[in-house]
């Protein structure tokens, strides 16, 4: 049986690099990759330290790997808020407290269907493993990557590797998505991004009669619901929701 319950481990920073407007953090976190499902997240904090200069950070997992050296996870973030600014300054060998994987994850179709995935900014990163899993199940995958500007788009090269169609949008997402859904006869819409993006996706899904699931990108300081600081109790009831309630 595959273990799915979250665990707490001491993670070690393997590397941190810039990718456009974002940071990509790779952590050695034994036991976490084996439990990973697309849509899940981890909570990171500095073990044994108390400081007003940082807050615990909860981030979606964008990649997980297991190998002879232990399991690693990859996280993508922009480093502009209090929850991730301190993460943009960590270095190789730094140790962090890691709890995860946490959260409700994406539900996969039982049969091969046509799926369109919509990622906004760094939210695109966590859709790549979902796209891979859908493709391996025989699904046809299309992707739309959206952001406020070209500089904030993420993951185009990886998306082209796993999706049949990849569209980039910095304008009217509803128009782009509606056209793609109609042309490809999409059966299921998946999305990851901020509330504004997810509401657009949910509206298009309703208009086109398509089932949808959306993962909300929002600050989740504690990752467990104790702090009452996140929208829609995203850390406990999400971060993946059916699209309809977000309208």
UniProtKB/TrEMBL annotation:
It is an enzyme of class 1 (oxidoreductase). Its EC number is 1.3.1.14. It comes from the Bacteria. SUPFAM superfamilies: Ferredoxin reductase-like, C-terminal NADP-linked domain, Riboflavin synthase domain-like. Keywords: 2Fe-2S, FAD, Flavoprotein, Iron, Iron-sulfur, Metal-binding, Oxidoreductase. GO terms for molecular function: 2 iron, 2 sulfur cluster binding; dihydroorotate dehydrogenase (NAD+) activity; flavin adenine dinucleotide binding; metal ion binding. Binds 1 FAD per subunit. [2Fe-2S] cluster binds at residues 222, 227, 230, 235. FAD binds at residues 83-84. Its cofactor is FAD; [2Fe-2S] cluster. InterPro entries: Cyt_c3_hydrogenase_gsu (IPR012165), FNR_nucleotide-bd (IPR039261), PyrK_electron_transfer (IPR050353), Riboflavin_synthase-like_b-brl (IPR017938). GO terms for biological process: pyrimidine nucleotide biosynthetic process. This is Dihydroorotate dehydrogenase (NAD(+)), electron transfer subunit. The lineage of its organism: Bacteria, Bacillati, Actinomycetota, Actinomycetes, Propionibacteriales.
């Amino acid at each position: 049986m595959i273990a799915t319950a979250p665990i707490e481990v001491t993670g070690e920073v393997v590397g941190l690099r810039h990718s456009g407007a974002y940071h990509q953090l790779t952590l050695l976190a034994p036991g976490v990759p084996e439990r990973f499902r697309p849509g899940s997240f981890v909570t990171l904090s500095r073990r044994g330290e108390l400081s007003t200069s940082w807050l615990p950070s909860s981030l979606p997992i964008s990649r997980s790997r297991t190998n002879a050296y232990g399991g690693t996870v990859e996280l993508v973030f922009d480093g502009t808020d209090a929850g991730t600014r301190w993460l943009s300054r960590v270095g190789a060998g730094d140790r962090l407290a890691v709890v995860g994987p946490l959260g409700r994850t994406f539900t996969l179709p039982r049969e091969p269907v046509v799926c369109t995935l919509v990622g906004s900014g760094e939210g695109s990163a966590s859709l790549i493993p979902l796209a891979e899993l859908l493709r391996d199940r025989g699904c046809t995958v299309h992707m739309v990557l959206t952001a406020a500007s070209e500089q904030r788009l993420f993951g185009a090269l990886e998306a082209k590797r796993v999706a049949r169609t990849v569209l980039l949008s910095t304008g009217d997402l509803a128009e782009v998505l509606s056209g793609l859904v109609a042309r490809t006869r999409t059966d299921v819409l998946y999305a990851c991004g901020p509330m504004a993006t997810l509401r657009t996706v949910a509206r298009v899904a309703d208009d086109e009669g398509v089932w949808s699931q959306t993962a909300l990108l929002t600050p989740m300081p504690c990752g467990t619901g104790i702090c009452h600081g996140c929208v829609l109790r995203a850390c406990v009831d999400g971060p993946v929701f059916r699209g309809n309630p977000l309208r």
